[in-house]
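Write out structure tokens for Leucine-rich repeat-containing protein egg-6-like.
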Amino acid sequence: MAIVKLLKKVHGYLSNNAIVKIENGSFANLPSLKYLDLSNNAIVKIENGSFANLPNLTGLSLSNNAIVKIENGFFGNLPNLTGLDLSRNAIEKIENGSFANLPKLEQIDLSNNAIVKIENGSFANLPYLFEVLLSNNSIVKIENGSFANHPRLTGLKLGNNKISTIEQGTFRNLSGLEYLFLQNNSISTIEQGTFKNLSNIRGLNLGNNKISTIEQGTFRNLSNIKYLLLSDNKISKIERGLFENLTRIWTL
């Protein structure tokens, strides 16, 4: 347990080392630990239970490692964790329930990985979640309801992926969403009703996609939007009434 001796009582800094594996119980008996930084290592595997019994941990950074998979129970029993950074790894898949037992999680960064698909239920049971960062992955499809039932979610970043189609209902029940970034994808079609019920959205970035047609009514319910970016697409026609009801728009 020499690794424990390196940790301070409240903050543990183990970044910029050559750690490959974290074994079960590596951080046991550290009830006062609030922040743990394991970024910039070579971590490939984290055993289930590695972060057990850290009741006061609020921040965990695993950025810039070599983690490929997040298994169910990976982050079990972290009741006060609010921030989780998993950016810049090699994660390919997020299993249903991967973030279970994180009842206070507010922000999760999964940008710069190799994620291909977001499954329905990937972010279930996270009632305080307000920001999800998924930019710079290889996401092709977002299953309908993947982000359902997150009324506190204000920011969702999905730019720089390979998304081609967004199904109606993908963003349902996100009444608090303010920013949605979908730039630099391969979106060709936006179904009518895709942005339904996003009445609080302030910024929507759809730039640099392959959109050729936008159906009338697509943006009808975005009454609070200020920034709508549609540059670098293949739009050939603007239908009459397409931007009606966007009375607060600043940038188009």
